[in-house]
């Protein structure tokens, strides 16, 4: 499983900005489901940056890093940072195909 991890000044800027924000998505005991992946993808399309929190019930068999890597891979996003039970994902804005009239 190959996951892109962000480094450098851009990572610090995003992490600093998201430090004050509350997580918008919680990963529960069901783990990484298709519904969760769809919601993360929708929020990434809208905001480009999403903060997620992994609840203790989801950590029975897996670590936060494993959950973060799986969500990042399935949403084709970049993992910015993992702190405790919280992680941040970033995805560049997708280009919309130009419509011809």
Described by the principal axes of the CA atoms, the overall outline is: globular
Question: What fraction strand?
Answer: 15-25%
- Count of DSSP-assigned helices: 3
What is the succession of H and E elements?
HEHEHEE
Gyration radius, rounded: 14 Å
State the CATH class: Alpha Beta
User: CATH superfamily, called what?
Assistant: YhbY-like
State the major sheet. 4 strands, mixed
Report the average pLDDT across residues.
88
**Helicity range of the residues?**
25-40%
User: Alpha-carbon distance between the termini?
Assistant: 42 Å
- How are the strands ordered across the major sheet? 1-2-4-3
Provide a short characterization of the protein structure.
This protein is α+β, with helices and mostly antiparallel strands and 101 residues long. The protein has 3 helices and 4 strands, in the order αβαβαββ.
Write the layout of secondary structure elements.
Blueprint: H1 9-18, E1 25-27, H2 34-47, E2 49-54, H3 64-75, E3 78-83, E4 86-90
Parallel strand pairs: 1-2
Antiparallel strand pairs: 2-4, 3-4
